[in-house]
Amino acid sequence: xxxxxxxxxxxxxxxxxxxxxxxxxxxxxxxxxxxxxxxxxxxxxxxxxxxxxxxxxxxxxxxxxxxxxxxxxxxxxxxxxxxxxxxxxxxxxxxxxxxxxxxxxxxxxxxxxxxxxxxxxxxxxxxxxxxxxxxxxxxxxxxxxxxxxxxxxxxxxxxxxxxxxxxxxxxxxxxxxxxxxxxxxxxxxxxxxxxxxxxxxxxxxxxxxxxxxxxxxxxxxxxxxxxxxxxxxxxxxxxxxxxxxxxxxxxxxxxxxxxxxxxxxxxxxxxxxxxxxxxxxxxxxxxxxxxxxxxxxxxxxxxxxx
Length: 306
Fold this sequence. Notes:
Elements: E1 9-15, E2 20-27, H1 29-36, H2 42-59, E3 67-74, E4 78-86, E5 90-97, H3 99-104, H4 113-117, E6 120-127, E7 135-140, H5 146-158, E8 162-172, E9 178-189, H6 197-216, H7 219-223, H8 229-237, E10 242-244, E11 248-249, E12 251-252, H9 258-266, H10 270-276, E13 282-285, E14 292-295, H11 297-303
Parallel strand pairs: 5-12
Antiparallel strand pairs: 1-2, 1-10, 1-11, 2-9, 3-4, 3-6, 4-5, 6-7, 8-9, 13-14
C-alpha cells in the first residue's frame, strides 16, 4: 500500500554533472478525489487528470506565490479543461464537455487529443494576486497529447529544452475499488553558463542520454503505488548520479467558499441577479468541487436592491 511519502507529492531531483533538473509527480488519493467529484466519462477524466498532473509539474519550474493554471479551450467534444495548483500544493480541476458529441466518437476514442479537444489553444497562467501583473502564455493545440502541446509551448514561447512524460489511469486497490492515479516525469536543461567547449559537449551528450533514459520509464512505473519515487529515479538515472531533494506535498482542495460566492454575486448587476433567481432564491454550484451554496429570498433581495 502507498504511504504519505509515495503519493500526492512533487519529488524534485537533479542529474549530475550535466546541469539537468527535474520533478517527478506522483498522484493518488488527491487525483481520485478531484476526478470522482463529477461523473466524467473515462476519456474526459483521463485528459483532465493529465492536465492536473502537467499543471503541477510545470508550476514546480517557477518561483511564484499564488496560483498556476493550465487551461485548454477547443471546438471538440471536450470544450474546456481547467487545472490549477497553488504554491502551497492545493490542487483542483474541472472539465466541460458535450456528452452527445463525445458519444458519437465511439468507445475506441481513447485519449486522442485532436478528436477530443479539436482546434483551440492551451494557456498557462500565473496569478500572484490583484496587486501584481498576471502572466499568461498561449499556444495552439498542436500535438497528439497534452504533453506534446506543452512541448510545443516550450519551443514557441519559452525556448526551454525539456522532456515530459505523463501517465493517468485507473488502478484497482486491494479493497477492490478502481481509483485514479497519475504521474509525470519532467527533465529540463539549466541555462548554459559558458565554459569550455568540451564541458558543453559533455552537457549536450548528458542531455541526450537523459532523454533516452527517461523514455525507458513506463506508464506502469509512474502509476505504481508500491514503487517509491526515489527508487524510480535511481532506476533510471543512477549511472549518471541523481540527487533527490525534499518532496512537496499535494492536496485536493478547492478555494470556493460561501463568502467568495456571495462577493461574486454582489458584484453582478441587480438585474442579472433577479434573472438568475428561481422563486426569489439562488443556488450556485462550484464547477470545481460540486459544492452548492444556497441563498434565500431575503439575502438575494439584499444583494439586489430595487
